[in-house]
Design a protein that fits this description.
The chain is of the alpha/beta class and about 425 residues long. It is about 45% helix and about 10% strand. The chain contains 17 helices and eleven strands. Helix 8 (about 210-220) crosses helix 9 (about 230-245) and helix 8 crosses helix 16 (about 390-405).
């Protein structure tokens, strides 16, 4: 049977997959722990109970998210048994559950993991379960596609942009409207340094978090992940490397996470910080006037930034009897009526234009994020699937090597391309 074959595939693939998925968590909402349901909750309960696993352990039963889960269960005539896991832990548990034949009824996972689970035979397709994805923005949906099939519905998205300190720029004589490409941004950083302040901070740590932050510059150069050492790709590494050499960015970026990078910006000394939607609440508490612009592409316009956020999917079960109710749960969680509540709770941008318009109407500050999400792309898009982590690791290693000065940008990216080509053969 199809389901049995998929279980065997999941078991066979799990050891390789477990090694690959650990770093793909740069942008999940579950970066902080909390009081979610117990991790020992029984999976795949029968009868009138349906299990939902999500990567939001920070939300307890009093949260709008869990209330929505319970409402969707009530509307479907069942009881929802929800467990919130840390993102990395959730992926591993999903693979193990598939091997054991006790997957949850609904699984919500970080978007780069979708192709990994799909290729391991863990997930059903939207076509199989008649999930309507016609209103979803194609660039967001692409993160959940593999081999021409779609394996879930995006619940929302976040991405990266540049926060800026208005006071620092004013002191330096920089008009933010003039910052439209790499040349004008670098010119602004030069003025900021000359004024006695600091230029830009970001995360270039040697993990997926570093790749996540580097991708807008890499893609914004016109480069493609299948050719890391292209002149365009090398120019993106050289941009960051030159910023460090000229003192426009601090050496601390080599070890910065997105959290520590934000803490640097929050000190009030930096003109710019590359960070995500999830820092909006912290920006409002920073104590200084700030603004947000999209990450500029090399020649102008908005650079494609990587999408963060999760997909709601239906795992493979031993029989098909439960799928109809699981479909009702997924449809409820991702419906236009509930999407505004969900994305507001999770600090995401909605995956449909209709709900995005509602978000901007309620919170005008989100306009720049909506535009950034429209230009964004999934890390596993371009049909990379499970090849992405094998490319990302040598890429972040190349960035580290160039920023530390151990290799030139060209040498670093040439070595990275060689490693990625060997790993993805």
């Amino acid at each position: 049977m199809r389901s049995a074959a998929r279980s065997r595939r999941a078991a066979g693939a799990s050891l390789a997959v477990l090694a690959a998925v650990g770093g793909l968590v740069a942008c999940s909402s579950s970066s902080e722990s909390g009081n979610g349901a117990s991790a020992s909750a029984s999976p795949a309960a029968g009868g009138g109970s349906y299990t939902v696993w999500d990567p939001y352990p920070q939300y307890d039963k009093s949260s709008e998210w869990v209330k929505l889960l319970e409402k969707c269960g009530t509307d479907a005539g069942v009881k929802v048994e929800r467990t919130g896991y840390d993102t990395s832990d959730l992926t591993n548990k999903a693979l193990l559950a598939a091997q054991q034949g006790n997957s949850p009824d609904v699984l919500i996972v970080d978007n780069p993991v979708v192709s990994t689970l799909a290729e391991a035979g863990v997930l059903t397709t939207t076509e199989e379960n008649k999930l309507d994805v016609t209103a979803i923005a194609p660039n967001l949906l692409a993160a959940g596609q593999s081999g021409g099939k779609t394996y879930g519905v995006p619940i929302g998205a976040n991405t990266l942009a540049l926060y800026y300190n208005k006071d620092v720029l004013k002191k330096a004589g920089v008009d933010i409207a003039s910052v439209k490409d790499w040349t004008s941004l670098t010119g602004a950083l030069e003025k900021v340094k000359a004024s006695g302040k600091k230029g830009i901070t970001f995360s270039a740590i040697g993990t997926e978090e570093g790749s996540f932050q580097f991708l807008p510059w890499f893609w914004g150069s016109g480069a493609n992940l299948t050719k890391l050492d292209s002149p365009e790709g090398v120019s993106a590494v050289a941009l960051w490397s030159d910023w460090l050499k000229k003192g426009y960015a601090p050496n601390s970026v080599i070890n910065n996470t997105q959290t520590t990078s934000w803490q640097e910006f929050a000190s009030g000394d930096f003109a710019f910080a590359e960070n995500g939607t999830w820092q909006l609440a912290n920006a409002k508490k920073a104590g200084f006037a700030y603004g947000i612009i999209p990450v500029p592409a090399k020649g102008g316009g908005t650079a494609p930034a990587p999408t963060g956020g999760e997909f709601v999917s239906i795992p493979v079960q031993s029989g098909t009897a439960r799928y109809a109710t699981s479909q009702k749960l997924v449809t409820c969680l991702t419906s236009a009526d509930n999407s505004l509540t969900t994305t507001t709770t999770l600090s995401y941008i909605a995956p449909t234009e209709a709900v995005q318009a509602k978000q901007v109407a309620a919170t005008p500050d989100l306009r720049v994020w909506v535009e950034a999400v429209k230009a964004a792309k999934g890390r596993t898009s371009d049909d990379l699937g499970t090849k992405y982590p094998k490319i990302s690791e040598p890429m972040w290693g190349a960035v580290q090597a160039a920023l530390s000065g151990s290799k030139s940008p060209q040498e670093a990216m040439t070595a990275a391309q060689s490693s990625a080509a060997n790993a993805t053969q």
